[in-house]
Amino acid sequence: MKKLLFPLVVFLPVTAFAAANNVGSCGLGSKVFEGQKGVGPQVLAVTTNGTFGNQTFGITSGTLGCSQDGVVSSNWKTALFIDGNKSQLARDAASGQGETLDALAALLKIDAADKAAFVSLTKTHHAEIFASVESAESIATQLKAALQADARLAKYADAV
User: Where is the signal peptide (predicted)?
Assistant: First the structure.
């Protein structure tokens, strides 16, 4: 029994964390759990896809909601950072300075020349970005929208 539980305990969380918000956006899991939100359905979608190994088939054949022109991204790092630092990030953005704001700028690969504009944007749009401090997804969505609306900072929006 211990031999069976060890791989599940070690590898299942890795699979769950490796996929940010649209984890099961492709494959059998995405079809079975379509329209459901939250960690539970996402973990189940990823587990379903991993168990049946169907994403490879879906991507190759263009079925199961998969496309052949997808882009691999690492936005999950940003999502995990926001989720783990929501409250402190909101405080830092409100004051226009702080370690979590600096770390977020680094994660988004904000150039030194654009950092002051980024800090100003998070302070100016604080009410919209942090309207729901409980929801990391909402914070990320609002931050991305604010970046997209700013001509100078729009190039960083895809990193959110």
Answer: 1-18
**Closest alpha carbon to 119 in 92, 137, 79:** 92
pLDDT along the chain (160 residues), means of 10: 49 43 67 78 78 74 72 71 93 96 95 97 97 88 96 94
Give me the DSSP letters along 100-125. Answer: HHHHHHHHTT--HHHHHHHHHHHHHT
CA 29 to CA 84: how far, in whole Å? 26
Extended strands (E) in the chain: none
Q: How far apart are CA 129 and CA 121, in angstroms?
A: 10
- In the Cβ-directed half-sphere of 114, how many Cα atoms lie within 13 Å? 17
The string over 57-94, giving b where at least 16 C-beta atoms fall within 10 Å of a residue's C-beta and e elsewhere, is: ebbeeeebbbeeeeeeeebeebbebbeebbeebbbbbe
| Whole-prediction pTM | 0.58
